[in-house]
Write a structure and sequence with these properties.
The complex is a heterodimer. Helices cover 65% and strands 0% of the residues of chain A. Chain A is mainly α. Chain A contains 3 helices and no strands. A two-stranded antiparallel sheet of chain B has the order 1-4. Chain B has a two-stranded antiparallel sheet with strand order 2-3. Chain B is elongated. In chain B, a hairpin with a 4-residue loop joins strand 2 and strand 3. Chain B has 34 helices and 4 strands. Classes of the chains: A mainly alpha, B mainly alpha. Chains A and B meet through helix 1, helix 2 and helix 3 of A and helix 27, helix 28, helix 29, helix 30 and helix 31 of B.
Chain lengths: 113, 801
Amino acid sequence: MEVLMAIVIGILFMCATYLMLSKSILRIIVGTGLLSHGAHLLILTMGGLKQGAVPILSDAAGVYVDPLPQALILTAIVISFGVTAFLLVLAYRAYQELGTDNMERLKGTDNHE
Amino acid sequence: MTSLHWAVFAPFILAIFVPLLYKWFRGIHTGWFILFLPVLLFTYFANFISVTMQGQSVTKSAAWIPSLKIEVDFYVDGLSLLFSLLITGIGALVILYSIFYLSKDKEKLNQFYVYLLLFMGAMLGVVLSDNLIVLYMFWEFTSVSSFLLIGYWNEREKSRYGALKSMIITVLGGLSMLGGFTLLYFMGETFSIRTLVSQSGNLFEHSLFIPALLLILLGAFTKSAQFPFHIWLPDAMEAPTPVSAYLHSATMVKAGIYLVARLSPIFAESGVWLWLVSAVGLLTLFWGSFSAIKQTDLKGILAYSTVSQLGLIMSLLGLGAAALHYENLDDNIFMAATVAAIFHLINHATFKGSLFMAAGIIDHETGTRDIRRLGGLMPFMPITFTITVIGGFSMAGLPPFNGFLSKEMFFTSMVNVLQLDIFNLETWGLLFPVIAWVASIFTFIYSMILVFKTFTGKAQLEKLERKPHEAPIGMLISPVILASLVIIFGIFPNLLSATLIEPAVSSIQPALADHDFHVHIAFWHGWTTELKMTLGVVLIGGILYITLAKWKGIYDLLPSRLSLNGLYDGTLSVIDKGTSLLSEKVMTGSIRRYLIYIFLFFFVVLGISLFQKDAFQLDTNNLAPIGIFELILAAAMVIGSISILFAKSRLTSIIILGAVGYTVSLFFVLFRAPDLALTQLVIETISVALFLLCFYHLPKLSSRKEERMTFKLNNALVSIGVGTVVTLIALSAHSQKLFDSISSFYLENAYKEAGGKNVVNVILVDFRGLDTMFEITVLAIAALGIFAMIRLRLTRRNDQP
């Protein structure tokens, strides 16, 4: 299973990289979204995908899955959401002010020091 | 802090008060307040003569950074005393001269004297420091203060050019010297020069010996304007004349000479040292005297003549190193080279100082320094003429002036080279006296040009800005004193020999301390080879001077573009253009370009080190089984993420991104992470909504083609590389578990210690609650930021220029 996940994550990273290299700012943000999905799955996979119970203590289960990566991922999800939301509004405002979403055109102007 | 420390730091302290003195006493020339200090210091240092004459030395220590072995140790022996006396003595004369040279009303005197005092203190620090790092610190102080003094008239383009050039070249050398000092520290475990000298025998064996030697010599050569680093000195002539007289003839340019002399006991055992110092010195001597003749500016001639005389001293110091290689010191003929170097050092300071001051007077009283416009000044300026004749004839090496004696001693040493049987000098050594002799002929010619083209012939009064007349008496005092010294040292050279020269020579050749060594400079030393050489110089030089107009054309044969200055300017502009071209090529301003750099770096560094270090492993023992649901979800995710790449509209790509996010949350369900699945589901929904909002606010896409992303092969290659590296690293990281997880602790204690059954939540708010707090902060900042971006609309400042 881990081998399969590693390959899936690699593909996620590949697609994310490809999207981040494009010109449109929206695609770049889509790329960062994919990248964070890849990273979250990577953390989970690295923690080990052994079968076990949900990490909610009960008398029935003896073996649980590792709770620590889950806590880390939960934090990471929230942070990447905050950053993504900020980036999106930034892109929206940049489009409103500058009239383009093409990254190649978003360069410093000549009179800009 | 001892009195010696106060003496070195006194100029710095006085420099603090100069602006106040300048402001409070506008009626009085600020220089008068400064003058007392060098006089005081000169008498203070003169007191040491009785100590050094007995072969003693004085060391005064003060702690600075003891943990790094950096101490402010000052050390007075014959060599440093000689330099201190030169610095303070000529410093006093130069300040006296500058009082009359610089106008009280037109010049920024406060700046001038601050810089000059900084320089004086720094120079004293250089010659008195025993600690190499302290020496380096003062060395760079001299570079900086010299930079400020050369650029004193900073409204002039040429001043700024000259200042920058001297700064670049001397700091280049200074830094390499610091490298050499550091290597010396590695070899000797100390920064103290005296301690290093005492273990010089061991250092010679060390593999870093030659690199240290070369680096330190580079520093000394750049400071002392040796070939090919002499090019800054002629351009430094844009400085006020008192500065040229002080820095660029008597003191700063001798800092390199001082360094070579001071470190001779450490390095002189090496043949590299002997050859480099003496050959570079000779080359400089020749090239400086050859180039001086074509100059038309008085200070230009003096600058090249300084270069050439510094080369002469340097070559003598190099030959003096040969003395180390002979057992019998009592009648050692090579010791004479060191004696000649020290003697000529004193002589050069006297006659070159007076010549510069005379040139300044001519400039001041006629408004030009161009020898093509000068001439016939003798009736107008008899005293200046006398000074120039004395200085010029001494520089040419004519009796009865002191330059004659040191030139004779120079010839002696050069002829003695023929008797050296070390380091291949027996074959190539013949070049030494020949080059020296030819250079002396050139020296004779430019000295004559300096004296006679300026003062004899027909006066061209219509070409001069002012009617020439004799300088005020105050301006003449300093050059007259120096010119008198030229004559006194010429007629009574032994005044110096016991007091200054012998102690200085025994500092350079410490082995002498045990010997009964006496310098005796005889004015008439018999009908010797040297005298015949001098006669030849006068004869041939005289003929060449008279026929100067006929052969001066050879200087035009050398195209000006091939000069060393052209090389310097070319190098600077190539570096300038090259770096700006490089940054234009690399820093394009395109974010895509920068991302490619980052990803390529990631791919190359991680990918290569993965295989270089043989880190890739695949362990299939400990894998979880693959279920049918996992397989389906994995397939959905792969198809989804790849199809984003080919999505034709952005709407499609956003929806597919949402689908991928929901697949992720399904994975979380499968991998037994309910909290994650919940959060992921909610957040993915909000994200997609936000994306759609954003998308909605973009204009109708009719104006822009909703085109597929331009397919770029290199983008694809880079991303495939990144994806592969991530997969490989994930696989090998998973295959090499070094120790067990600490999660058993959380599982055991979640209920016992924290009273919760949901272990993930207990970790988030109890075991690792700090993470959560700052995660909340992140969200708050993001929310505030979004709010601020939407609400705060400052008008763009386009209307401003």
